[in-house]
Protein 1
Amino acid sequence: MYEPSVDPLRVIDAHVHTWTRDIISEKDLEARRIAAERDGTEPQLDSPIEALEAAMSDAGIERAVILPIDSGLNQDMPLSLKEKTDWHADEVMGNPDLLTFVGIDPRRGNEGLDELERAVKEKKCGGWKMYPPNGFYPDSEEFYPYYELCTELNVPVVIHQGFTSRFKHIKYGRPVYVDSVAVDFPELKIVLAHAGIPWVDEALTIASKNPNVFVDVSGWQIFAARSTDRIYSMIADARIFRVFPNRMLWGSDFPLFEQTMPLKRWKDFFTKLRIPDAILEKGHPQVSQDEIESVMWKNAARLFFGEKP
Ligand SMILES: [Zn+2]
């Protein structure tokens, strides 16, 4: 029987989204139309789980982490907080390769805390997705009970960072507002989404000093498609900051960048990534296959799926 000498590379997408137009707000739909008009593309009004599963299977991606967003304090949402948790928990029920988080705006206070606990304990949600551009700074001490609860439940928090859509507020997405949380909750695992684009140095600096902080590279398709040097130099910097390879997670933000670079191409880009000579000549080492595997799946397997690869 034929046996490949090297295991095929496994891949976990650490950052994806699913929704249908029935569960998001009119305002979010409008923001998608505005973005599509800017880009000259079709607006993404739906992202059903079937589309995710098909794209994953086509791209050879084994598992993915779905990150729902709670915009219920800013916008009229068709579903209540609990209904939205259940919608996401139910949709992944038949697929053990998909893990969903719970999206909660921490300004909800006790209601949100109860929901976080219910989502993790009863609905098998794998962590908390926080979306500061809805209007809050993550380091407010009034949110500390959420970090305590995540620590107690032993689940990570993924915090949206940097660029956002038309009706959200980017100032809340600066990585510097996560530093105190990382310091005060050393056991809590924190992921800075998008490696903080455009505040990448800030994100890497914060991850560098706090061993409990990770970055994901979802959204970096914008550079992979047009300005690859920015990715190579980010990885070189992340190595200096000791964030690459062990605290960097590959992700896509599916389906939001599909028209920039389809999932399969983005996966291939990163799995075959080689630092060009011009950067190596400055004294940076080449990336190894082992290091790429850490980013593509091993770090995520540890962080989200409790494995010990
Ligand atoms: Zn996202």
Protein 2
Amino acid sequence: MGRVDGKVAIVTGGASGIGRATAEILAREGASVVVTDIDVRAGEAVVEGIKAAGGKAVFHKQDVVDEALWGDIVGSTVAEFGKLDVLVNNAGIAPGGPITEMTLAAWRNLMEVNVDSVFLGTKYAIPAMAASGGGSIINISSVAGLQGAPGLTAYNATKGAVRLFTKGVAKECAMGQTGIRVNSVHPGIIDTAIWGKMDASMQDSILPPSEGANAPDVEAIAQMVQVPMGHAGKPQEIAAGILFLASDDSSHMTGSELVIDGGMTC
Ligand SMILES: NC(=O)c1ccc[n+]([C@@H]2O[C@H](COP(=O)([O-])OP(=O)(O)OC[C@H]3O[C@@H](n4cnc5c(N)ncnc54)[C@H](O)[C@@H]3O)[C@@H](O)[C@H]2O)c1
């Protein structure tokens, strides 16, 4: 018996990194998984891989900042699978650089993708989850939602917002006796594609150089920031925590911060 047998989950940003690992482990543990992303090709490939391994999954193209699409995604999930039990608000971006050089447009875009998306997903998921007696919303924050990170100050603001939004909604849902739990996850330095998507200027000024490669060496970043465990985390190590929060094993947890960071913030 899988740990999330019979549950229905939506994972945003499921085409890559932590979202992909999450979709894969939830499916392996018995959930039907709706994988969404703006990257159609990679998202469809994740779903094909899940199906080939015997799991249940579908892909929907979704830009998480589009409110109308949230109604469609939640509606089609309930229409196809009968309910919604788990929402993983994972999609995110991490552009960096000195705050004095950041444009207001770039700030607003970051707020939209990392914060508006979590608000919208939560807003549309709650009525669907409440209709079937409860559920689990898991918001991916960061260690950058717990402490400052030079060069990532706007990202700090978004992940701090996700952290406290989670706690407010958790209390609201608990006191409303909805059966819905809401928790945040705080990864440290995790080896995913996100580091290679940072501005070149950020990579040049803050990240260590990587020999001959276009993408930065995430292990070198982990060394530079002195992760106490001595290495970067794998997306599967974050997905394992998300699985716990999605499952009934965490039935008395809401408004909590699950930190998975190799000791960075202890
Ligand atoms: N990798 C890390 O070190 C780390 C650390 C802390 C927190 N996080 C957080 O974990 C989450 C996942 O990051 P990751 O490292 O797996 O990155 P990633 O770049 O590998 O994956 C992010 C996915 O989100 C998708 N995405 C981006 N913008 C989107 C949009 N507007 N709508 C829909 N999908 C969109 C991308 O296409 C991509 O598939 C993010 O919220 C990130 O901030 C990552």
